[in-house]
DNA sequence: ATCCAGTTGA
DNA sequence: TCAACCGGAT
């Protein structure tokens, strides 16, 4: 951490440019299909991605990375396959809710016809899909312009002294979307870069040496 | 505020 | 060895 930023909190474009210059383009989401994005979004809830990859590999082995393939698994086997991603009983139930939702609504093709707002609201009806998971899906599976807020975003924005960092999910999301405009590509990269930055440097115990935002940062906020 | 849980790297 | 992990439901 630094001794404190000597200017106002950086805007989202600046954060995006700095992180991009440092980490390079990340081209998210690492998945082959929209369904895979959905499954990964559920499995990565409060869970390291490396553990999610093991679960996804186990599902792929069982040809369960399609709605029909996953629906063919017994609930016990589904839970067992995703075990490495943690919370496996809870998440198995959430994936089954997701499958039921896709069947009820006519699948991914049908959902693609919905307006972005309606698509988001529909996803939020699913048990186990909260704001972040819904927005992961809307942005990375359907390529719609919504910004995904997560714990890394809050932590970084707080340390940068940005407004709304401690506000509710919708407030923070709306503030970023208003700042950047409806820019799917920018939302995609900014969220991905914030996650990468959060993993590599901007941790709970930050590793500030060589941070690309070091000169604009107040460091760990205690209050 | 608590529970859900296996895995890993500082 | 243990905090932390791309949260959400109750």
UniProtKB/TrEMBL annotation:
Keyword Iron included in the entry's annotation: yes
Molecular functions per Gene Ontology: 4 iron, 4 sulfur cluster binding; endonuclease activity; metal ion binding
CDD domains: ENDO3c
Residue ranges of the TM segments: none
Keywords: 4Fe-4S, Endonuclease, Hydrolase, Iron, Iron-sulfur, Metal-binding, Nuclease
Pfam family, one: HhH-GPD
Residue span(s) of domain HhH-GPD: 43-200
BP GO terms, sorted: base-excision repair
Protein name, as recorded: Endonuclease
Organism (species): Thioalkalivibrio halophilus
Taxonomy of the source species: Bacteria, Pseudomonadati, Pseudomonadota, Gammaproteobacteria, Chromatiales
